[in-house]
Batch of 2 targets.
Target 1
Amino acid sequence: MKIDIRHVAKLARLRIEEDRIEKFEEEMLSIIDMVENLPPISGAGKDLDPSNPMELRKDIPTPSLKREEVLKNAPVSQSGCLVVPKTVD
Amino acid sequence: MAMDYEIVVGLEIHAELNTDTKIFCGCKNVFGAEVNSCCCPICTGMPGSLPSLNEKVVDYAIKMGHALNCTINNVCKQDRKNYFYPDLPKAYQISQFDVPLCEHGYLDIMVDDQGNTKRIGVTRIHIEEDAGKLLHDDRFNGSLCDYNRCGVPLIEIVSEPDIRSSAEAKAYLDGIKATLSYLDISDCKMQEGSIRCDVNVSVMEKGSGKFGTRVEMKNVNSFSAAVRAIDYEAQRQMDVLRKGGTVDQETRRWDDMKGVSIMMRSKEDAQDYRYFPDPDLLTIVVDEEHVKELKDSLPELPGHRMLRYMKEFGLPHFDANLLVENKEKAAFFDEAVQFGCQPKNISNWMLGDVSRILNEKNLTLADTKLTPKKLCEMIALIEKKEISNNAGKTVLEEIIFSDKTADQVVKEKGLAQISDSSFLEGIVKSVLEANPKAVADYKGGKTNVAGFLVGQCMRASKGQGNPAILKELVEKEISKL
Amino acid sequence: MELYEKSAYELSGMLREKKCSAKEIAQSVFDRIDAVEDKTQAYITLTREIAMEQAGAVDEKLAKGEQLHPLAGIPMAVKDNICTKDVLTTCASKMLYNFVPPYDATVMEKLNACGTVMLGKTNLDEFAMGSSCERSYFKKTHNPRNLDYVPGGSSGGSAAAVAAGEAVIALGSDTGGSIRQPASYCGLVGLKPTYGSVSRYGLVAFGSSLDQIGPFARTVKDAAMLYQVLCGRDPRDATSSKRERPDFVAALDGNVKGLRIGIPVEYFGPGVDDVVKKAVFAAVDQLKAAGATVKEVSLPSTDYALSAYYIISSAEASSNLARFDGVKYGYRAPKFDGLIDMYERTRSEGFGDEVKRRIMLGTFVLSSGYYDAYYKRAKLLQHQIADEFAHCFEDCDLLITPTAPGTAFKLGENVDDPLKMYAADICTIGVNIAGLPGLSIPCAYTENNLPIGMQLIGPKFSEDLLLKVGDCFETIYGGFNTVAKI
């Protein structure tokens, strides 16, 4: 079993220093290995649980935040908007 | 020998739902508000905030599912689609992955003027949240994020790759739009982005039944752009294949201004969205009784209505198609036929002068004072030959924006057609006297000058003479001479 | 006895009898904070002004003869991953070093309505990922019972504050043991409620399907009082449960006659220190003497629970923590070249190693080609573990286990070995995986003055029973309410 740490880091938008990649892989593998060694598990997936249904929200408006509140934690804002480096599309 | 190819198209349509609030929070779902003024901790993805699903979103999606003949999965779930982009504040979109709310449906589209239809499969309809908007300003080196649109409810309608031409694609898109509009679940305003579509195009050797490599096209912002994008992309792929090349699986961006598609992402860069069930939301369970109630609440849908207009009223496909385009127009037509005019005449007026006036002024029927009854009173006057067709146009211009009836306008403007022979005889006689040459020509066998003479009589009657009677009188009077 | 040493229940009575004012109570606790905070490092932020204002408001109500909630005027600490309106909420991360939420968590709204007095926000392992409180970006908290030792984690700051007398009660959060393990290390009562019984709205998410907010206190009765306020359906948290709430304090009747206790053998394996086993067995014997029956039971999948826990919690965390990208709040890297570089630098500089490790693991197990092998299997395992617990509860009312395999370890001892650190969670994660309630109460102290905790585990929504048995044991034990001598 190998983990492509660089690929995973790219997906997670993290940068792992080259000299630490091996350690990361080793640590992740130790967890992964525990699952590799699991005995076969019976039973189907239970992604759906109709016995515990979700209560839905009524379509009734509630107050929004003031714009200052939306922006007050933003590292950079301008003209009522948050600012990010230029995007292509 | 050049290979013959067939186009294969699948469409993914995103439609914003016109609920009062967003999908997961109580912020208002409105278009055009000041930037970042309809936002809260939930739709801006603040730490600690949690989603709570709007019940209307589920109802609306189920209605669409019924309208497109889908199976409704009344037990389903929501999943997270993970990717980083500044318009997506949580860095995941709450969508539905393997268990959509609706699946296995279809829409029948008209493929010719004889009312023949083709069935386009609808793979699935699922609910999800919209992303925010990024604003670009050349004066400034960055992009601005407006989160008002974050959390606006969307349904995504995915078709099977059953579409074989851009014309079929257009018919399918029109059908979906008309259905959304009939159900009153989306504003359907292309210019506001309330309907958007992604287009999947491939080409295959005719008759082979083997699909080619599929290219996904993004940024298709209107239905007419979809037609152009499909035609362009299919041609591009055929050119590649005919030159012996291969089509790559990729995502391309449609530039409608330039009329070309540009590579965005290759297969190697394909995103890994790491879908998994959203742990913040439990299983959606819609009571089966409620699913049925929603089905029973559906209005007559555009496809059915179009066929009815063709069968019941003998309208051509072209007319029927335009009339059912939106519910308002179709309802107006349905009411108008109750007043006993010829359905084709009603259709001609609605699709002709009425539409022209509305388009010129950028209005809808609801903005005017025209009622089916008023329109039919006017048409009835023409059918009874009490006014001319031309006078009808004048009448329409008046009654469409006022409380006046057709009768009132005809009286006020003296537009009534004169059918009284004794009165018209005098006019005919004086016209014949004034045009001895034409009369001579007629007698000499050039009977087509009758038209000229009738025209002169019309002018003399200030347009009010009944042309049919005038023609009769002209012929009668000349023969007497 | 100083005011800060008293229990919430006692203080509540004294306020009503006008033996002291809320301001006096708050002042006493702040005096204690001033005296010992240097040594414990329990708090990230102190909210002295807010506290005195809230205490003043309670005194005014008292003066007017208005009805007071039992928790009115009680000084409370709040873990710094629970959003507090207009008060810094950092999750002990550089990533949120300056984040001031514009809203209150549901539990804070409820507590504010009761008139509790907020002392400040307590330290934790960054984003609640850790078992020692050493993984905070800001500081390392010390165990007030013995300052050379860790207080446990991740809610180590809240545990230390209550144990040191720097708070009377506190809020923690528990994803894999983050309330119970520090409660055990610090000699406190700590309750991890049934999943769905307390609203998570406003709790900065780590593992959404496992996280619960719960109380720390020095007595079972105080924990019951606080839990009474915390629990209940919240329409803003779809996973919160609609359920009638009993009166948890009234349920403390001291009676354990006929109680059927199960002892899961897997929780007393070779990984657990003998001193811990001995203490827990002795406590069980005392409950037996009070009328309970005891039998051995088995939870065969216990050994695999750790992997299921790390896979599920990390997968959820990788998604929950993706929003920290330098756009909307918190840290943004000062230098970058374009959008992706900004994301990567911000996240690499803003998160600590443990957080990165878990984001990486979670991203991997959800990634294309691995989902079925890891995430899906972990979810299957989760159901199996839950089924095994449910099976035990067919003929047991509750289970008793150690809360942690050992007593608190020394600061720095395990910090470089994530696996060893993870082992501190083996007794607590099963409860989170199965969504059950778990109560940790002290049952003994070692020669180094390090507490040993025992864990009571019950079926879903059996908090009333756990608190009742805990309270009964507290009486047998001779009372828990001790503030650490520092």
Note: Chain B has a mean pLDDT of 92.
Target 2
Amino acid sequence: MDREIVKKVAHLARLELSESELNAITNKLTLVLQHFEAISQVNTEGVIPLVTPVDIEYRFREDVVEGDISVDEVMQNAPSRQGNLFKVPPVI
Amino acid sequence: MSYQDYECVIGLEIHAQLKTQSKMFSADSTQFEAADNAHTSIVSVGMPGALPTPNRLGVELAIKTGLALGCTIRERSVFARKNYFYPDLPKGYQISQYDEPLCENGRVIYLLDGAKKEVRIVRAHLEEDAGKSVHIGDASLINFNRSGIPLLEVVSAPDMRSPREAAQYAKSLRQILRYIGVCDGNLEEGSMRCDCNISVRKKGETRLGTKVEIKNINSFRFVEKALEYEFERQVTLLHSGQAIVQETRLWDPDKNRTFSMRIKEDADDYRYFPDPDLLPLVVSSSYIEGLKKQLPELPLERFERFQKQYGLPSYDAEILTEEKEIADYFERAVVVCGNPKAVSNWMMTDLMRLLNDQKLDINQCPISSESLGELVQLIDSGTISGKIGKTLINEMWDTGRRPKQIVEEKGLVQISDEKVIEGIIDAVLKDHSHAVAEYRSGKTKSFGFLVGQIMKACKGQANPQKVNELLKKKLES
Amino acid sequence: MLDTGTTLSDVIRLIKERVVKVSEVTQFYLERATRLNPSINAFITVNDAVLDQAQKMDDQLPNQEQWEKQPLWGVPLGIKDMFCTKGLRTTAASRMLAQFVPPYDATVVSRLKQAGALILGKLNQDEFAMGSSTETSYFGQCRNPWHLEYVPGGSSGGSAAAVAASMCPAALGTDTGGSIRQPAHFCGIVGIKPTYGRVSRFGIVAFASSLDQAGPMTKTVEDAARILEVISGLDIKDQTTSSEKVPSWSNNLNPNVRGLRVGVLQEFMDKSSLNIDVARALEEVEAFLRKEGASLVPISLPLVKHGVSVYYLIASSEASSNLARYDGVRYGHRAQFDHFSGVTLERFYSRNRSEGFGAEVKSRIMLGTYCLSAGYYDAYYKKASQVRRLLRDDFLKAFQQCDVILSPVSTTPAFRLGERLHDPLQMYLNDICTVSVNLAGLCGISVPVTLSSQGLPIGVQFIGKPFDEQSLFNCGFALEKAFAFYRRFKNELPRL
């Protein structure tokens, strides 16, 4: 774990880190990852990764249109809008 | 420099919108026409705490497609999150499938200049669409009506060697999707979108060249044009000793060229991982078998059967099997009259013209398949003449009534009684003695004139064969 | 009638018997919440409308049949600020959502409302539930009512503190790696993390989807059972909820532990790594259980020592993706831009997010993003998910030899404010006894038993098989009868 990797990751995560944040996070991640490294000793050959830890029966939703919130409710927390559209910096 | 020395290698990724009423992971509508952000929900705008619920029909249509493309259907597939930031992507990730897609290893066989061509399908996976952004001056505006619409991404192998082949493949895939009723194939409304991967190499070379992706093309014509442009661009670069840059480009239909999208170096670190909000999708083999049984005959099989079973020329068979509904119409009409060639002729000429003029599709046709079959039957049985048939079909179109009904009411029944016909002939010959004389002096052209006069006199109702026969007899006696 | 010893079940009984009015109950807790909040900071938002709502209920007491459908009628509850509440600000204790007013209720919130409960307010927590001390809240640290210089635990620290200080009769928390059980232990209350899939996550701000569960935090076991049976059960809006039947836990409470096989998790019982008071409390509990006829079975699960690593790798990975939606486009914090021209999308995102998230959240997002990124996925996220399966299978195997497992909740009682803020590893290791329960999808309860030499509460944890919450409630009920910790609220905490 070095500063360059941390910078790259910050970019991927869309976080802008100050110099001191960058240092702090680099140190912190180095420290915890060193500790977490220990799991590499566990033999996991052929083990299927576990995501949902409990057996749950598969359920579909039927293809029926139903509304939940109104357009006004969709828009009510918008930091910036034009009519019922969300406004952001130019995407191109 | 000669383009003939080079060949291109093309693979397509086609996104097809599955025909559902509600979205893939939420219950808001997929309808095309809607006010801004009117077709959204807690889930499709990615509110805090929103959770996806999978649409049964979406999965079903995806499996059907996989089966129609000869794919293996995974009994356990996984929805994964594809993480990237973009304003039209409400959750900061797209639910898609990654290393365990629903459908794999299929093929599309289609006709190219009468020959069969096969393109392998690497995979077909379910995913959700993003929203849309509109650019206005110094800002963009985001609409999430499309967000969450179910898409099936069909990824082909790099099996195509020309832009035309690629466009034809895309058309054939669209035809199959429409046949099995999973996608309306409406390109203007964005129901199908195409990403093209193209690389160029010297003929005889077996290694692949550097791949360029052209994204988001929404017409088959543009697929062909964009690939043609790209082929020439890349050959020109190679020829002048320059390298091809691996990049994503966009097609500009106004300027007829592709242009580079500025791409960040990390753009494809999507950090896929299984979506913990969704259980692995498990479908039983019996369920898959059940869906297989629901599949209709596919276009290519039907095309071949039409030639074999009905003795149709390949041109007719191709047109009549272009859409499932047309082929169904044809077969229903044939059941009524038992004369496939005649039904084919009526459909390919009069019916198609009428439909085209009014911009209707076959489902909206005012003449039912049974009526058309009846029309052919009336002609074949000699009840009406073919000529009357031509007038009759227009009347059937205008009124939507059955041909038998119209024939009875208007007394259009063909005159086959020789005595009646002879009477008409005699009267005409009497009125046109000059023409009779001409004929007898060797000017056989007058024969046609006299037939015309006779048909006119009987309002086209006389059996034309008999008219010919009797007229000849009279003139030569 | 109402005092610091009043439990949720007391409140229900008093209303039902018309001893107190709904508005009097609400008034009592509202007054305490308002008066104590400056020192404890358990509430982020108090529901202004709650007294009006309560007054409207005063004259419409339900009949017997309605009571069964509305078992929480007239009870004002505190809700951790992770639950979306329609029309009531929901912040996740983050600047990112400081102004966010949800247009909908989380499923558990609407179930509580349907059961007749009122929402008294929204409770403090660690930002996005990332923390074990409620010190990472954008709205300021929360304090432990037993000792204001100590943390209440976290991340549901506001919920634990509010219940302990009788600012509300009961509260909802969420638990991703111990966030209900550890603060319950620190504040001397009961907290249960139900089996994964028991309670709907719909409408709960997601931290780590495969680990998050909501649960009640209360003064007594019966109180916890009463709330859990209201909020549990299948929700068609959450595919990961189970259709498992929801029993009437509160009616089936049984303090008799005779014949019960209690596994004692050796890896967590190492006296050298336990605080002396915590170790003593555990010994007392073991002795009690033995005396009551339970059999104690030593259980060894070597993989639990990797629990914290596996937990932080998986939780942070999921969180990095779950928190990607906070971008300032549709809601949430947006940085000041004079105008958009020249603002790249990248800068737009980075500024919104960097200003909106606090330091701990940022570092977890960084950790998770790193673990999922190309080249590291296999070594971190995937490896952790594989170890997770082994750990889960080991737990299920252990449950062939025992009915429940006894362990500490944490190695220590509450620690001092700020004590571990600059020692991230120590802060993370604090969760060692609780995270495995989430990883394995099991249920776990924290039950208070005694006070430490410094006067800080100490609880113990019981871990149960999937969907066997009843055994946890029963064990807790047995301890509650024997140790009667809840009495201390009446006798030792009125000083607040």
Note: Chain B touches chain A through 45 residues (CB under 8 Å).
